[in-house]
Amino acid sequence: MRQGPGSVNPPRRGFLPPARENVTSETTPDHREATVMWLGIDLGTQSVRALLADDDGTVRGGGSAPLTGRREGPLHEQSPADWWTAVKAAVRGALAGGGRPRALAICSTSGTVLLGDDRGRPLTPAVMYDDGRAPGRGPGRALLLQREYGPGRVLHQADLIAARLLGRLPPTDSSHALKTGWDPERGAFTGPDVPGLPEVVPPGTPLGAVDRAAADETGIPAGTVVVAGMTDGCAAQIASGALTVGSWNSVLGTTLVLKGVTATPLRDPAGVVYSHLSPDGHWLPGGASNVGGGALTAAFPGADPAALDALAAACEPAGAVAYPLTGQGERFPFAAPGASGFLLGTPASDADHWAALLQGVAFVERLCYDRLDLIGAPVDGPVTVTGGAARSGYWNRLRAEVLGRPVRVPEVSESALGMAVLAALGAGAAPTLAAAAGRMTRLRETVRPEHRGRFTEPYLALVDALERRAWLPSDLAAHARTRADTPR
């Protein structure tokens, strides 16, 4: 069992938050204005999003900037320099109205790693979360980079941006560190021996203040508190308000991430489901699939999603059954490095193909809940949907039909809002994360299924196909069939 450099071993939860850093100085912004604001930054796969929210969750500004990467077979890399360029553009968009945040937090994709120097400057490209060249999630990708480029500090996306804002390399948070081998129960890194692992602090820990150089580049006032963040899935869960034991959040963007809340860690012998530790002391079990909205972009580049959604409504169920995986390899609800996407049958039209992809993602989402139920997770609580796909009213309704249960849609379904909530917690504006989220998040609507059972047959066809390919374990396939036969 190895500790990251500078990690501390407290008597409870494996580590103790370091003393809050005093960030008050002559560079600290004047916060006497009536409106208190918080900034969240979300480093996604296809874009960076920044959102400025006030203390009751009203969005005061937003900005975004695109990201691109390099995909060649199992390889998926991005340039860390592009992240900083996109962050500057997105943040300036969010602050264009003159808002001055008191604090900010950053989320990023889970399992994406790069190597940097002791100041947090990048030394390598970033190996993305779904890069298939190395096993072991983050640890394997870090070792891959060290073999190819030599020694370096292991960084996550959020670490790099925090370093640019602070002018120095800060500790990472335990949420991002989870995929690089951090065990939140033991408070130490476990697994492969990876040189250059970071210090680790709990999410919500103040890391320092934005320096003048970063303020000039981004427009963020010098002295703004930088708070340790969480992964994008956890950030979306915070934005959803799903922070009570038994509740679940499905985050659907380029990929699909499910996060729930339990009082104790959830054990998964296969290691497909993992648990983050909430700043409130609860556990956030879940998993991340490589299936998601990226399949739509890959199959229909430049398409109008709203127009195709309208046409897809006439294709229920679709004439083909899709496993809409782009690239190679699946992580959740089953682990299959050799998995690849496929279609059963031939779509009758573009609309039918689009419908098959939408339904296929929803089928994988349903299989995720079957997996969670199989290992003993409570899955009967409220389900909230967030991520870019939650902007599609049709897809929300379809997912409720496939899941056979109501889904709740927040008023703002942005991971960046979750980071604004965490920033408020880290700056001491709320006693708990749940209290901060209760003040800053609201539901827009609840979508209820009207035709239960309509998609059972194609769902089970996908289960059968995945099992035949030896990707889906037989016990999970059998459990999915049993649950399909049980009235909900």
TrEMBL record:
**Family matches, as InterPro entries:** ATPase_NBD, Carb_kinase_FGGY, FGGY_C, FGGY_Carb_Kinase, FGGY_N
Q: Where are the transmembrane segments?
A: 416-438
Molecular functions per Gene Ontology:
kinase activity
Give the Carbohydrate kinase FGGY N-terminal domain ranges.
37-134
Extract the ranges annotated as region (Disordered). 1-30, 55-77
* SUPFAM superfamilies per UniProt: Actin-like ATPase domain
Q: Which GO terms describe its biological process?
A: D-xylose metabolic process
Q: Which residues form the Carbohydrate kinase FGGY C-terminal domain?
A: 250-426
Instruction: Give the UniProt keywords, A-Z.
Output: Kinase, Membrane, Transferase, Transmembrane, Transmembrane helix
Domain of life of the organism in this record? Bacteria
- A Pfam family matched in the record: FGGY_C
Q: Which family does it belong to?
A: Belongs to the FGGY kinase family.
Protein name as annotated? Carbohydrate kinase, FGGY
* UniProt organism field: Streptomyces clavuligerus
